[in-house]
Write a structure and sequence with these properties.
The chain has 437 residues and is of the alpha/beta class. It contains 16 helices and 14 strands. It comes from Anoxybacterium hadale.
Length: 437
């Protein structure tokens, strides 16, 4: 088949290379903490941004040509996107992809015709996957773009819309299983509200939970053995979304008995929109046993919306990979839910974006491993809580203390000394030394 991109396979050439189309830090076979870098970093391509987004925004039309030689809004174009995606993944050494249903094909007016098109394109994708080391990380249904979902999908006030959402989820699960997907994501793009004056929150959240329970039941019935994911996001497009952040999502899953089947898909840009750091939501997911997969991107602190930029901030990728390594890894992958900036519109720019992101995470992995091997930060953390390792502290941790026993201890002790210094500045200096020394 004729290649769509006049670009050679991207290779690792090291930090001394001046070749823009080469990895400087992502060396897939390099051993880091006992296993190859590519196993720590199971990268994935987001179908919607890389193959569908052409730079259109609310202020202007498309700047990039994503036709890939075919007329848009046709099945030929859908197949051309498959060809382009697989060529890019092979040239970049990316082994996974993620998709929404309507990323793959133009949606028809009739859901039966939409499903027929999905069958056709998924057959084409399955054939392309044969003999290639390319796999599906996760699938999902787009339950936010079509006007029918203006009030949400699972949270819709219309029973008919709720049923239509269920039909899309069913088909997206069928496709995920067909393509061997490791996970299935619920991103509640419009599962929220603009004003409480017209919203029954309890009613809507219960309906969302019931839809997820039906999805789990159906998925297990058709042989899906992977994880279901919630992808927390606080706002945009809705003013308030029910999956606001990791802690909110964890509470929801436990309240409705979904925590045995669901984990979280944490996105960097969504965490910062919620007023958290990326590593905060990763830590909250991890300590609750729900760190599943990651959408690897970054936002712009000067803008209040989801900019989905390719990650370049090595402090952020280092702290991310520190959380991942300390948690023992992830069951999912690192999906580049990221797009080039609107003025970066050429084919080369598509590759530059992935090279930037893959190198930023590779460098983050290397630096996170060095921080762990250095041991000073972990050692400080252990010492900081050492008062709970013996005496009254050990009794507290073992659940043997009572309010009365603690009160008696405090009365005998008198005024306690100040706690040990938090030494934030020292720890940040250590991190700088490890990263750049």
């Amino acid at each position: 088949m004729t290649e769509l991109f006049n670009i050679e396979k991207i290779k690792y050439e090291g930090p001394g290379s001046n070749n823009d189309l080469a990895f400087k830090f992502y060396n897939p076979d390099q051993i880091v903490l006992g296993k190859p870098m590519k196993e720590h970093l199971p990268f994935a391509m987001a179908w919607w941004h890389n193959l569908c987004n052409a730079g259109k925004d609310i202020f202007g039309d498309e700047t990039a040509d994503k036709s890939f030689g075919a007329e848009k809004s046709t099945m030929d174009h859908a197949k051309a996107k498959v060809d382009a995606g697989f060529e890019m993944m092979e040239k970049l050494g990316i082994e996974y992809f993620c998709f929404h249903d309507v990323d793959l094909i133009p949606e028809a007016d009739d859901i039966k015709e939409t499903n027929r098109r999905l069958d056709e394109i998924s057959d084409y994708m399955a054939e392309k996957m044969k003999g290639r080391n390319i796999k599906c990380l996760w699938g999902t249904a787009n339950l936010f773009s079509n006007p029918r979902f203006m009030n949400g999908a699972g949270s819709s006030n219309s029973a008919d819309i709720y049923c239509f959402a269920a039909a899309q989820i069913k088909k997206a699960l069928d496709l995920t299983v067909k393509l061997g997907g490791k996970g299935y994501v619920f991103w509640g793009g419009r599962e929220g509200y603009e004003t409480l004056l017209n919203t029954d929150v309890k009613f809507e959240v219960e309906n969302i939970a019931n839809l997820m329970k039906m999805a789990v039941e159906y998925g297990r019935k058709i042989g899906f053995t992977g994880d279901f994911y919630i992808e927390p996001k606080p706002k945009e497009p809705m003013k308030h979304q029910y999956d606001f952040d990791a802690a909110t999502a964890v509470g929801f899953l436990r309240q409705y008995g979904l925590d045995k089947d669901f984990k979280l898909n944490i996105e960097a840009n969504h965490a910062t929109l919620a007023g958290h750091t990326f590593q905060h939501d990763l830590r909250i997911a991890a300590i609750n046993g729900m760190l599943g997969s990651i959408d690897a991107n970054q936002g712009d602190n000067l803008l209040g919306w989801d900019t989905d930029q390719f990650p370049s901030n090595v402090y952020e990728t280092t702290l991310c990979m520190y959380e991942v390594l300390k948690a023992g890894g992830i069951t999912g992958g690192l999906n580049f839910d990221a797009k080039d900036r609107r003025p970066s519109y050429t084919d080369e720019d598509m590759f530059y974006g992935f090279i930037l992101g893959m190198d930023a995470f590779a460098l983050g992995l290397l630096k996170a491993a060095k921080i762990i091997e250095d041991g000073r930060i972990d050692g400080f953390l252990k010492d900081r809580y050492s008062s709970f390792e013996s005496g009254i502290g050990a009794e507290i941790r073992a659940g043997k203390a009572t309010l009365e026993s603690l009160s008696a201890y405090a009365e005998e002790m008198g005024a306690p000394a100040l706690p040990e210094s938090g030494r934030q500045e020292k720890l940040e200096a250590i991190m700088n030394t490890v990263m750049f020394g």
